[in-house]
Amino acid sequence: MLTVAYVVLAFMQDQGSSGPVTAGVLTLAALFVIEFSARFYDAPSRGAYFKRHWLDIITCIPVAGSLRALRLVRLLAFIRLGAVVRAFGVGAAASERLIGGSTLWVLGPILLTVWIAASYGYYELEGGLNPRIQTFGDALYFSFVTASTVGYGDVTPVTGAGKVLTGLLIFVGIGLLGFASAQLTSRLMPQKNELAELRATMDRHHEVLLQVATRVDAMATRLEDGTEAQIQSSSAVLR
Fold it and tell me: What Å distances lie between residue 42 and 33, 45, 52, 54, 56, CA to CA?
């Protein structure tokens, strides 16, 4: 949650907001640095801890200035956020109390994180330079059609960094959206085990119906035999 707040405030700062926004960015950055320093000092192996968590200290740096490329350092915060989201999703998917499986709790949040992160990158790189990207909504649209490889052609990157980001997004988007499409298709289409269970259920119902029909025939035969016996006994009495 603090990472999300940090990215949002940093985005507002890049758009010209100051005062409380800048104070919030610096405060959160200081909190992240203190946390990293405390965990680094307390780690049994500081070298190993730094290798596993170097991304945390980089995302703590409140990069600012006129260089747009430096602002993309904040995109690394989305990688950190994506790792947290994945860990939460795996735990939620393994829980017996929550329904939906890995498709809902892991793939869904990761797709949303990648979409917002790519939109943030496009807005920082192309905003003000690309006439087709004037608002964050334009960046959301561009990242969506790029990740889905729709390619209408109405929006194209104009900066070198934007073109690099486009290539990375297509590479990631094809894999994620392809996997999501496969999962959706597998849920909609009947599986072999599902068809086998349905056939077995129908066979069991057919056997039950046959047993019921056999018993009904047997009862009808007994009734007929009993009726004939009564008729014969009655005739004998009358005679």
Answer: 14, 9, 14, 15, 16
pTM above 0.85, yes or no: no
Is 146 exposed, middle or buried (CB count within 10 Å of its CB: 0-12, 13-18, 19+)? Answer: buried
User: What b/e readout covers 121-143, taking b as 16+ CB neighbours within 10 angstroms?
Assistant: bbbbbbbeebeebeebebbbbbb
- CB-count burial class (<10 Å; 0-12, 13-18, 19+) for 74: buried
Query: Which phi and psi angles does 169 have, rounded to 5°?
Result: -65, -40
The pLDDT tens digits of the residues spanning 72-125 come to 666 777 777 777 777 777 777 777 676 666 666 777 788 888 888 888 888 888
Q: Token pair for residue 150?
A: 């729709």
